[in-house]
Amino acid sequence: MRFPSPDLSGAAWRKSSYSDGGQNNCVEVADGFPGVVPVRDSKAPGSALIVPADAWAAFVAYVKG
């Protein structure tokens, strides 16, 4: 399934709480995009992976479990 790419120019990115203490080896996500969760690597901030919100929620639940 393809989702239209959201405009991420104004996205407020936040780092994973499991990242390595502020170095540049971080996973970042942006909130506020209905139905999708943009995810990016802090070392390559120019590109993002757009994940369906339900798939992201399942991933997070699995990682926490």
TrEMBL record:
Region (Disordered): 1-22
Every DUF397 domain range: 11-64
Record's protein name: DUF397 domain-containing protein
Source organism per UniProt: Streptomyces hoynatensis
